[in-house]
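Input set for joint prediction.
Command: fold jointly, output tokens.
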Amino acid sequence: MKIGFFDSGIGGITVLNESLKILPNEEYIYYADSINAPYGTKPKELVKEYIFDVVNFLISKGIDVLVIACNTATSIAVKELREKYDFPIIGMEPAVKYAIEKNKEKRVLVTATELTLKEEKYQNLVRKVDANSRVDSLALSRLVEYAENYIFERKIVVPYLKEKLKPYDLSTYSSIVLGCTHFPFYKKYFNEILPSHIEVMDGNIGTVKHLKNILEKADYSSSSNNGKVTFYYSGKEDNSILRKYLEMI
Ligand code: DGL
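tokens >
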């Protein structure tokens, strides 16, 4: 099975990392559109163009299934992509429902990109699952920039997170949802600064389980490619970048 993965950049590596554990025998092609990152602060129509270019590239490489390892790209293009192509397409969305159901009293803080949070898809999701208005949303765009530039130093990231979280009374929250695939690189810093009762959640494992179900349902026999990954960084094949980022998870 040739599984195509893409993200605005290197964030989707946090999803690919789980996929390599759960589906270790498949073949992967990953496209990091880093030259056009970030998506989350750009106009929707422009981002849509980037996405269709990337998907066409992956199709030219013969993918059988596509994982949109990016919440932002999913929110603006999954519907059209599914209408246009007939191979399975797995998207991502912030794990709001899971967070709301897991704790029925406290608040949930959803972090994502600006574009994800203002898109209809997210707004509808919250409207549907948040009957008691317990969800707050916070854009953390700078984490995308940090990750793209391989900035992981505590002294840079922690002050930014503290500043952004300052307005919230964290004792009233049960969880923080990481609704952007770049954010799990910084999970340890979230855990470090948040009170211990707060659970930091991302949708990565859920997405890969969903991918696995889809493959099983479609009766795809697993290939034995031993998790071979071909990594394209802005169009250029370069697996050293993938290795460098996998080390940071
Ligand atoms: N990694 C992406 C996401 O999950 C978007 C980051 C960006 O390019 O703004 O939303």
